[in-house]
From TrEMBL:
Superkingdom, natural source: Bacteria
Gene3D superfamilies cross-referenced by the UniProt entry: 1.10.10.2910
Protein name: IrrE N-terminal-like domain-containing protein
Residue ranges of domain IrrE N-terminal-like in the record: 36-69
Amino acid sequence: MKLPKQVKVSGIIYSIVEKKHPEDEGHTVWGFTDYEISKIYIRKGLSEQKKRQTLMHELVHAMLHEAGEDERCNDESIVNPLGNMLDQVLQDNPELINR
């Protein structure tokens, strides 16, 4: 999967960057969203499926943040299932995005 260079979330343009070892609070992660600079990092070398799924996960972080849900935007118990479901719905229903 070729990642897009950017994505717009509620009017804010987030850059998407592949990085060898993205970190969140000192821990290497598959993805990380930096709200302050509107940048999403995705780990280089992930499989196509994991790369896509990680991007959806990080987009859920960004969507919740931009919706003003700062108390929830870093809650992995919410973000994980929503990211997985977003990925699955878009994969199983390509007509939603291929109009």
